[in-house]
Amino acid sequence: MRESAVMNRPRWVLLVLVLLALGSAALFLTLGARGGWGFVLAFRGGRLLALATVAFAVAVSTVLFQTVTENRILTPSVMGFDSLFVLVQTALVFALGQGALVSLGPIPRFALNVAVMTGFSLLLFRWLFLRETHSLHRLVLVGIVLGILFRSLSNFLQRILDPNAFQVLQDTLFASFSRADVSLLGVSLVLIAAASLVLLRIGHRFDVLTLGRSHAISLGLDHHRTVMTILLCVSVLVAVSTALVGPVTFFGLLVASLARALVGDSRHRFVLPAAVLLAIVTLVGGQTILERVFRFDTALSIIVEFLGGLVFLVLVLRGAAR
Q1: pLDDT tens-digit series, residues 209-261
Q2: Angle, vertex CA 78, rays to CA 245 and CA 259, nearest 5
Q3: pLDDT digits over 266-277, tens only?
């Protein structure tokens, strides 16, 4: 009887998370709504879809990045994505002036951010994995070093910027879940759908990767090709989410760790949907509470990053790093 309850725990957790996600979405769409429902649902529906898109991209990319690196305290941000995003925005303002971010338009700026970050990951992965003897540890180390380099270049350019241009730049460098541009949803969904289809086709290999490189190869898995495919899809997901709402460091770590703790099962068919649902509940529910209940305009990203940072410290202190 007890064994049966343990086996059903992931399914019960997923069911509860689905109900919480649906409840959060319903409250986000209807709570405090005034005026015509046609306008309200269309306006809030677009924002809801943007939050769900970011939640999906961050959760899936973090869980799979931890799978291929065999480390549960790492996130894709260690590869320098966040620092590269800041450097691109800073370089645009430095080269073209403070009006560059506005005059360039949302879609060209989005395309530029996604192209630069995905191109960076392609070059990095191809260079480091040109020989199969190169390890993931070297990939992570190089990503950390490049992140420091990008951050240093950004700080240097920001120090010699015009004060007015620096103020305009600062508004774009903080993650904001309330200002996601819904006009970018179309191209974002296409990119995420393409990456998701690729991941879906190789989804049966994820659990094999958790056994470790040597065991996966002994079981007949093409480890090098599988890891490369996953990292490229992760880079697309991270690039899209960062270009939509800005850099987030610990949010993925927060939902991935909570998902594993709640389902009590390391299989990806449970962990991945649980992480996505938790991310949706956190973003949609948190944004609803901040906007409709407490009625103050603060940044949800600050609270999420604070909680994620605490989870990171707890994992480090408990020796979760391997």
Answers
A1: 888 878 888 888 888 888 888 888 888 888 888 777 777 777 888 888 889 88
A2: 70
A3: 888 999 999 999
How many CB atoms are located within 10 Å of the residue 290 CB?
A: 18
**Amino acid letter for position 224:** H
Residue 284 structure tokens = 């949609």
CB 146 within 8 A of CB 153: no
Alpha-carbon span 74 to 94, nearest angstrom = 32
For the record, the structure tokens of 128 come out as: 């480091």
Cβ–Cβ < 8 Å for 50, 185: yes
